[in-house]
Amino acid sequence: HVVRQVVDAAQADAAGRLVGAGQRAEVDVAAERTQQPPDGVIGIASAPRDLLMALLRRVSMLRAFHDEAPLELDFVGLKRTAEGLAWVACEVGWQDTVRYSSRQQARLQMGGLVGHVVLDAAAAAPFLQFLRLAPWIGIGKGASMGLGQVAAGTA
């Protein structure tokens, strides 16, 4: 029930705030992936859709597994909205790292996206409630191990 309370609080908070013209949604991301994308292409650097849809999937899965009811959203409509968004600013790069797996008794090469992105908050309004949850739930592969850290806010 905690996930529902957090989502409901975020929705109430988002409904109570008006997004002004020129307001920005800023996101700092340190998301882990096991492999660098081919040809150095970094998904979230090209468009906000990948980051925003990963966040929606994470909230939806948490709600489905830890609550009595699934998250009821228009995922198709939100995806269309996300596809129409563009970064106001995007400074994202790849950072390699290594972690040790006790189960595999080996060091594993890992890496992830690190950087800062900015969205027009008015255009991204349907996603702001979920961006407010991002620091607590993380996104991407490895979020359950403390990876996939995100800091988000509006300015």
Short description:
This protein is of the alpha+beta class and 155 residues long. The protein has helices spanning 2-16, 43-46, 49-66, 75-83, 125-137; strands at residues 24-33, 89-101, 106-120, 149-154. It has five helices and four strands, in the order αβαααββαβ.
Description of the structure:
With 155 residues, this protein is α+β, with helices and mostly antiparallel strands. Helices cover 38% and strands 28% of the residues. The chain has five helices and four strands, in the order H-E-H-H-H-E-E-H-E. It has helices at residues 2-16, 43-46, 49-66, 75-83, 125-137; strands at residues 24-33, 89-101, 106-120, 149-154. It has a four-stranded antiparallel β-sheet, covered by helices on one side. Helix 1 (2-16) runs antiparallel to helix 5 (125-137) and helix 3 runs antiparallel to helix 4 (75-83). The longest helix is centred in the middle third of the chain and has 18 residues, at 49-66. Mean pLDDT is 75; it is low at 14-19.
Structural classification: alpha+beta
How does the major sheet shape up?
A: 4 strands, antiparallel
If you average the pLDDT, what whole number results?
Answer: 75
Please give the share of residues in helix.
25-40%
Strand order of the largest sheet: 2-3-1-4
Question: How many strand elements?
Answer: 4
Radius of gyration: 16 Å
Gross morphology is: globular
The sequence of SSEs as H and E is HEHHHEEHE
End-to-end separation:
31 Å
Number of helices: 5
Strand content: 25-35%
List segments where confidence is low: pLDDT < 50 over at least 5 consecutive residues: 14-19
